[in-house]
Each structure stands twice: as C-alpha cells, then as structure tokens.
C-alpha cells in the first residue's frame, strides 16, 4: 500500500491531493480481491497504469494551462508581444554568436583524433611563426620521438591547363606522411604513397571534391586522367571527400612535395608548413620540451644558420589568429550581456504582471487552486512566452548567419557554411527553457508565497518595498550591462576608424589588380618573362584612360612574406626582426602606378639588367635604419646572397596590412632575376591605374594577356581599394554585429527603466495624491520621479564603467592602440546611458505630475 | 458556460460508461467501477487512475457534480465521494447514444451489422 502511495506521486500534486485517498481505497479493495498468485501481475499492471494515467493527467493539466495562457495573453497582447520580442532578441543574439563560436572555437577539427594534431613552427627572436626549412624539417623529424608522424606541406597556386579555360587554382603540395596522418580516405582512387613523393617521381594529384565537380563534372572515370599544372604533366590518382579541407578551405588540389637534394642546402630557406600527430600518451608540453632539446642540439651543430632557432607547437585546432579568437570572445560576451539584459527585462515584466494579478491569483487560491497549480500555471505561461521568443530568435539568427559566416577565418579546414545544426538548436532550446523557467518560476514563486487572502484585502497596495528593491536591482543590472556593451563597442569602433584612417602608403582610387602567375619551367628564363611583361604592359598602357601599369612579385596586404635578412658592412646576418626587410621584384612604373612617392634617386629601369650592378630601391625606413641622417644613394647592402646598390628611395607602405607593423621594403628590378632563380619572386601581380572605372578595362586586359600567351590564366581580379578594405573587413563586420548587440541592449534597458518607473508611479498614485493634497508642488513630484530614475542610472553606470574598463583591458590587443580607458568613448557611453534613463523617466514623471489627488484617493 | 453537447462527441468510452453508471443513481468511485464491470460482464474494468482522471475531466466539463447528499450513515464510508450526473451530462450521453445508433444504422445499410436497415 505504501508503494502504491509512492507511485501516486507521479501524478500532479493537485490531482493527488484531490483523489489520492479515493484511489488508494479502490486499490485496497482490488488488492483484497486478488489472490496471492495474481499479485505480481496486478502490480505490473498497476505500475504501467499509473505511469500512463499520470502522463495523461499531466497532459490534461498542460492543455488546460495552455488554454488559460492563451486566453490570458490574448487579453494583454502588448505584454505578450513585448515579452516575446525581448526573449527573441536575447536568444537570437546568443544563437548567432554560439553558432559561430561553436564552429571556430569549440568543435573539434573534422579529422579522427584531431586533438592529437599539432602545428609546428620555427621561431627566432622577433618571429614566432616561421615556416620550416626542408633541412630543419628533416632533422626535426629524425631527432624527435614525440610524434607518431610528422608531415610537411606547402600551399601554393598553380596554372591548370587542359579542358576548358586555363585557370589559376590554389594547390597544396604535401609529403607522403600528411594525408595518412590525418586519417582520411579518398572518395575515389588512392592517396599518395612514398613512391609518389620521391625526387624525380612522376607527378600525381588528388582532386578536391569541389574541383572534381566544377571542372570535371564529377566524372567517375577521372582516375588516370592527365592534367597540365604549370606546364608539367600530372596524373589524377584520386578524389578527396566533399568535407575534406586541408590545410585551408581554398585548397582545390593536392600534389606531392618531391623535395630535391638541393632543397636541403639552405637552412634559412623557410617555406614548409609542418603538422604532426602526437604519439598517444604524449602531451603537447612534453613534445614542446623535447623539441626544445632537439633545436638546441641543432643550434650547436649549425651555430650560424640555426642561431636562436626554436620550435613552437600548438594544437592544429588553434591555428586561428589570436585576433579572430579575441573578436569571437568579445562577440560571445556581448551576446551574453544581451541575453542577461533580455532576461532581466523578462523577469521584470513577469514580476510586474504577477503583482498586478495578485488579486486574481489570490481569488484562485481561495476557490481551491493549490500553490503548486498556480506556479505550474505561471511557469507554463512564461515557458510559452520563452518558446515563442526562442523560435523567433532562432529564425532571426538563421537569417543573420550568412553575414556571420564571413567571420569564420579562412585558415580553418572547416566549411564556411555556418553550422546551423542540432547542436545550435539544442543550445538555443536549452537557453530558452532556462530563460523561461528561471525567470518565470522566480516571480511566480515570490508572488505565490504570499498569494493568500491578504491580497484580497481591499486597498492592498501592489508591490511591497522589497519587491521594488528587486525590480530596481534588475534595472541597475541592465544599465550596467549596457554601459559595458556601449563602451566595448565604442572602443572597437574607434579602433576600426583608426585603422581605416591609416595611410597605407599608396593611393587606391582607380587601381585594378590581377594576377598572371607565369609557370615554371615554361618561364624559367628571365628574358622570356620580360618579354611577356612588356607585351602585356605595352598593350595596357595604350588603353584609353590608363595612367600607369606595372608588375610586382606580390601585392601589399595580400602576401606579407618574402622577408629576408639584410647585411650591411660588418653587420652579421641575424635572423631577427631588427635586421630583415621584405623583398619584391618590380617592373618600372610600379611606384608611379601605386602613387608611392619617390623620395630620392630613381625608379628601377629596363636598363637594369644582369650585366649591370644589381640595383635596389629601398623604402625610407630602410635607409634610416642603416644610414640615419645620411644620403643612402650609392650605398651597398647584402640580401638574398648578393650585393646590391641603392639607386632610389621611396615612401614606406603597409606590406603586412593596416594592423601589423611592416618590415622596411626593398625592391629589385625585374630583369635582374637570374635564370631559374627566385621563381617564387618573379613578378606576377599586375596593377593598372586608370581614370574613371578601371574595372571596365578588364575585357581588354584579358584580350591583351591572351594575345601574349593563350594558355596564361588571369586570376585574383580585385581593385586595390577592395584589398585594403578586405584588410579590415572582418573587423568591420564584427563591429557592426557588436553595435547591433549594443543597440539592442540599450533599447531593452530603456524599456526596462521605463517599465519600472511607470509601474512605481502607478502604484504610488495614492501616495502622490496625498502629497499633492497636502500641498506638494507638481515640480516637486516630477523631481521626485526623476531623482529616482537618476539614482537607478547612477547605480548602474558606476559599476558598469568599472566593468567596461576591465573588458577594455581584456581586449586591448584588439584595439590597435586605442587606449582601453579612452575618455571620449566612456563619456559618450555614460552620457548615452544617462540620457536614456532620463527619457525613460519622462513619461512616468509626466503621468505623476498629472495625478489628480481627488481621483487617486477616491479609488481606494 | 457549457459547451454545445456535440462539441464533446465522440465520447471516450470510459466517459460514456461512467455516465451510464450514474444514470440511475449517485455513486462513489468504486461503485462506478463495479457497475461498469457488471454491465459489461467483466469485459471492462476501469483502473483507479483512468476512473479519476475521467472524473476530473468530466467535472471540469460539467458532466458530473460531486454531491453532498449522503446515503444513510450506516452505508456510508467517510472517505468516499459521490458523483451525480448533471442535466448537461445526460444531454451529452443522449447525444452520444444517438450518434452510435446512427452509426449502427449505417453499418446495417452497408451489410456490416445484422438486422434491417
């Protein structure tokens, strides 16, 4: 019998209180009528019967509550709409932020046991992330024991010819260890074997799914097909799965590295990316300390080339710049702020509503509804509101995803399509339920605790002092959170403006850029390349409106590499940031086309050929570093194994983008590249400056290139302005999102303040009436309300400012030099908050002033 | 406040049986179970849960009321509650019976049930 009573607890308390006695009675009779043999069957039957009926009763109650909720909400559509909207904003912001953070920060990489995968870099003072030289890679691999496998790769681009238009595609050359280490299986064919990776082996390639579909129509007979890549013949041996991306999203094709013996000659020729899989049981720290020993050993062996050279290791998953990570944290933090504000608002709304309904609830208690029933009813109501808001929020988040997907860094081997899957939905659902329950049950509980007959007393005042304190604290929290958000957004906005205002060192208006990367070995000869450049540039300069055209190895902000140590006089080669410069080869007219000012000497010339002394044009900062306050013209320095003479000085440009400091620049003439040397640095990026729309020239430029070499693809067509804008684009998107969050938070806080004050005024109408009857001036009443508003605002602003300062400190690295205690930002944010509070007070104050003492007192 | 009888149709079978059990006299829960069991020759034996869940809903729908009239004290058990069918409840039961006989008439017409259409 006791067991039966226990089972009855599965029913809702209201039902149990009503019928438990009766049901026990019925069951007792049945028990009496059943023989000992029938007992087990009876109990089993009873167990399932209770389970089923309890569920059914719960469903009945739910249906009833829902009906009641629908009726109650229909009576107060304004309240319902506000609550749903408030929740939608909070959930929407968080769902969006979470889908992004999940993709970038939380989700493991799409490889088996991806937590064992690490990225290895070479580090010297000043540079913590340098590629490895083949020699160092070989030695690290041979000398270390922490890794189950080590692999090297190099991302590059190549001209793909054959079947359709010639095309420039992103490729990655890998050694035969990389793909097995990632534990991927090809969709078709096989992956590379050691034999494919040997020096002199025939070229073999694996196609990405995308390339296979796009260029070869998903041809199932693709295996064995021959392709021309940079004029070399390759055989297709496989196709990779659709979701395989490595090392980056853009890679369309993989070939083998096939390192040659002479690749190992120069220990400072750093161009290999290295990835490793830790042996099981080996931690990252253990591997790092082993690599410290290995590199120290190598430094002893090669004291010059490997001077101060160490290894840095970190999880492959963290191969996202610290900046994108910080920006994401900021975004998530902001979203949480928005949710908190939304939740406090919701709690406030529900609390006020519950207080207003105090009498209704008391009546229901009086006619026999249990407290459990009331709480359940109120919780259902808040859950319905939360669910409606959550659904709306998820919908809104879904709409913003295309915008947010741009914030997923390219460098991750994951799909850019934002993952709007069950994880995100689950997260949103959990958040919604939590919001509904926590912020719905709390007010319900508070109200029901005193929902007894006292509320029925005529003239009982809604909202005791204690509850007003609770609601006031909620508003204070809202103000605080919006100050933090406003300040953070303000700081990031200032940083963005500052970066966008940075002078890149060149003018972007009217400049079109594109790439014609000349393949080796076809263009190994310098004179062949020069011929191509001159035909193309000659043709383009004839076009109407064109005021300048030139070639360079790589455009600024597109490629930050090509950094070489510089030797001047008795300076010893030191590979650290104080002694390096970026090296580019250019055709004459580059500075003019880019509007980079020539400060002294001359531009490179067609006459700078290999039989003349090697000429160099250097940037101002280069000249000042080695010859401060002296004339740099005619001076010599050694770089890239050769001696160069300075013939000209130009202004500095931002090679590495608006945010990072750039090394000084050195430009060499395009005809002074030795045959077969520096293939990588051969000019390939074309800049064309024109009056009017340079983009309109593209068809003619294409024709000119085609005429110079019909197999030469044109790629990467962009305006220079786009390139510069792209440099700050993700930051701009980020600021826009944060700004939207801050605006939402700001509005919500304003609504919250208004709500609290309006309610306070309406419940204190009688008191105000009495005061006025006793002779208080309307001005004094208004002042009283405003004072209260100002007090609330100040109580929120003061801790808000402190928190905002802390938040600013945390993201200082993102601020591009804007100080985290930037006074203007703080003043603007707090000013906005105070204004908002005062605006929120105005309407209630006006109402308070219009209270008619007679009516207010007669109501009671 | 009653809904239209037709809006409650078709009745769940437990509900209809309870209404029938209460047609002639007020009964308490266990008596309802027994009455239904006898009438159906033991084919239908409501569990306590099903009974009181139905009763709760029927009270809300206004098909039943709990009655304060008690039988003679010597027959009464303090704990028991007695239920009485309301006029609305009788109306709903009649509507359900009509619905069912209409159904049977149609079944006869199509030859599924014995007797003349």
Please tell me about this protein's structure.
The complex is a heterodimer of chains A (860) and B (117). Chain A is of the alpha+beta class. Chain A has 4 domains: 2-58, no CATH class; 126-307, no CATH class; 324-501 and 726-859, no CATH class; 517-712, no CATH class. In chain A, the strands form 3 sheets. Chain A has a 6-stranded mixed beta barrel with strand order 3-4-9-6-8-7. In chain A, a hairpin with a 2-residue loop joins strand 18 and strand 19. The longest helix of chain A has 44 residues, at 720-763. Chain A is globular. The two termini of chain A are 54 Å apart. Mean pLDDT of chain A is 83; it is low at 455-463. Chain B is 49% helix and 9% strand. Chain B is built from 4 helices and 3 strands. Chain B has helices at residues 13-21, 29-39, 48-61, 87-109; strands spanning 27-28, 64-67, 82-85. The longest helix of chain B is centred in the last third of the chain and has 23 residues, at 87-109. Chains A and B meet through helix 2 and helix 3 of A and helix 2 and helix 3 of B.
């Amino acid at each position: 019998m006791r067991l039966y009573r226990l089972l009855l607890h599965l029913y809702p308390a209201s039902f149990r209180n009503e019928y438990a006695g009766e049901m026990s009675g019925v069951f007792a009779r049945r028990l009496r009528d059943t023989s000992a043999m029938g007992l087990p069957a009876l109990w089993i039957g009873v167990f399932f019967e209770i389970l089923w009926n309890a569920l059914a009763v719960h469903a009945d109650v739910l249906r009833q509550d829902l009906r009641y909720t629908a009726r109650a909400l229909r009576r107060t559509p304004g309240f319902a709409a506000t609550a749903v909207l408030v929740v939608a904003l909070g959930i929407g912001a968080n769902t969006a932020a979470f889908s992004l953070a999940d993709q970038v920060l939380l989700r493991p990489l799409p490889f088996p046991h991806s937590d064992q995968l690490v990225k290895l870099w070479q580090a010297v003072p000043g540079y913590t992330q340098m590629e490895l030289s083949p020699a160092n890679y070989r030695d690290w691999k041979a000398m270390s024991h922490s890794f189950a496998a080590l692999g090297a790769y190099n991302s590059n681009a190549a001209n793909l010819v054959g079947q359709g238009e010639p095309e420039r595609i992103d490729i990655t050359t890998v050694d035969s260890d990389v793909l097995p280490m990632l534990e991927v299986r090809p969709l078709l064919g096989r992956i590379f074997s050691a034999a494919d990776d040997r020096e002199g082996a025939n070229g073999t390639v694996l196609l990405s799914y995308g390339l296979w579909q796009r260029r070869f129509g998903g041809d199932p007979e693709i295996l064995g097909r021959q392709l021309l890549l940079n004029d070399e013949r390759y055989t297709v041996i496989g196709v990779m799965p659709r979701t395989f991306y490595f090392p980056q999203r853009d890679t369309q094709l993989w070939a083998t590295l096939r390192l040659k013996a002479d690749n190992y000659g120069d220990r400072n020729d750093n161009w290999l990316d290295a990835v490793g899989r830790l042996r099981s049981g080996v931690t990252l720290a253990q591997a790092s300390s082993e690599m410290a020993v290995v590199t120290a050993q190598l430094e002893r062996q090669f004291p010059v080339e490997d001077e101060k050279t160490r290894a840095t290791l970190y999880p492959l998953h963290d191969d996202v710049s610290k900046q994108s990570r910080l920006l994401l944290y900021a975004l998530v933090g902001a979203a949480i702020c928005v949710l908190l504000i939304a939740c406090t608002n919701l709690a406030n709304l529900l609390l006020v509503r519950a207080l207003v309904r105090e009498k209704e609830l008391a009546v229901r208690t009086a006619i026999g509804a249990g407290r459990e029933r009331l709480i359940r009813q109120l919780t259902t109501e808040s859950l319905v509101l939360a669910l409606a808001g959550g659904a709306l929020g998820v919908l809104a988040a879904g709409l913003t995803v295309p915008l947010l997907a741009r914030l997923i860094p390219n460098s991750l081997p994951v799909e850019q399509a934002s993952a709007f899957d069950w994880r995100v939905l689950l997260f949103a659902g959990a958040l919604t339920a939590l919001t509904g329950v926590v912020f719905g049950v709390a007010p319900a509980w508070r109200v029901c605790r005193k929902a007894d007959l006292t509320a029925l007393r005529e003239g009982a005042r809604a909202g005791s002092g204690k509850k007003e304190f609770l609601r006031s604290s909620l508003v204070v929290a809202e103000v605080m959170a919006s100050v933090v958000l406003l300040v953070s957004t303000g700081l990031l906005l200032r940083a963005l403006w500052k970066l966008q205002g940075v002078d890149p060192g060149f003018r972007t208006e009217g400049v079109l850029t594109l790439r014609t990367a000349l393949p080796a070995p076809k263009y190994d000869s310098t004179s062949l390349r020069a011929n191509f450049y001159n035909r193309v540039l000659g043709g383009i300069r004839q076009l109407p409106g064109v005021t300048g055209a030139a070639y360079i190895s790589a455009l600024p902000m597109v490629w930050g590499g090509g950094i070489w140590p510089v030797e001047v006089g008795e300076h010893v080669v030191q590979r650290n940031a104080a002694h390096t410069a970026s090296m580019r080869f250019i055709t004459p007219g580059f500075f003019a086309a880019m509007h980079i000012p020539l400060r002294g000497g001359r531009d490179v010339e067609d006459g700078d050929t290999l039989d003349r002394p090697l000429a160099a044009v250097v940037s101002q900062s280069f000249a000042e570093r080695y010859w401060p306050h002296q004339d740099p013209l005619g001076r010599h320095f050694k770089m890239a194994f050769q001696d160069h003479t300075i013939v000209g000085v130009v202004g500095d440009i931002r090679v590495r983008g608006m945010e990072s400091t750039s090394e000084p620049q050195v430009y060499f003439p395009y005809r002074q590249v030795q045959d077969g040397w520096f293939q990588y640095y051969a000019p390939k990026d074309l800049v064309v400056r024109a009056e009017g729309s340079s983009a309109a020239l593209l068809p003619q430029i294409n024709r000119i290139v085609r005429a110079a070499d019909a197999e030469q693809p044109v790629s990467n067509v962009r305006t220079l302005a786009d390139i510069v804008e792209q440099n700050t684009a993700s930051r701009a998107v980020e600021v826009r999102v944060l700004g939207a969050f801050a605006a939402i938070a700001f509005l919500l806080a304003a609504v919250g303040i208004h709500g609290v004050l309006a309610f306070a005024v309406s419940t204190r109408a009688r008191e105000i009436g009495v005061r006025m009857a006793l002779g208080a001036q309307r001005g004094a009443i208004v002042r009283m309300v405003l004072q209260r508003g100002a007090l609330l605002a100040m109580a929120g602003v003061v801790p808000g400012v402190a928190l905002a300062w802390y938040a600013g400190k945390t993201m200082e690295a993102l601020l591009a030099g804007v100080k985290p205690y930037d006074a203007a930002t703080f003043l603007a944010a707090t000013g906005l908050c105070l204004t908002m509070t005062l605006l929120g007070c105005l309407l209630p104050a006006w109402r308070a002033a219009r209270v008619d003492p007679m009516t207010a007192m007669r109501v009671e | 406040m009653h809904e239209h009888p037709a809006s409650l149709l078709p009745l769940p079978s437990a509900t209809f049986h309870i209404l029938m059990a209460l047609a002639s006299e007020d009964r308490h829960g266990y008596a309802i179970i027994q009455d239904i069991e006898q009438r159906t020759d033991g084919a239908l034996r409501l569990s306590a849960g099903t009974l009181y869940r139905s009763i709760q809903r029927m009270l809300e729908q206004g098909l039943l009321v709990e009655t304060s009239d008690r039988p003679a004290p010597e027959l009464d058990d303090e704990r028991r509650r007695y239920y009485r069918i309301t006029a609305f409840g009788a109306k709903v039961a009649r509507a359900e019976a009509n619905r069912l006989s209409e159904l049977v008439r149609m079944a006869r017409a199509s030859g599924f049930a014995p007797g003349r259409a």
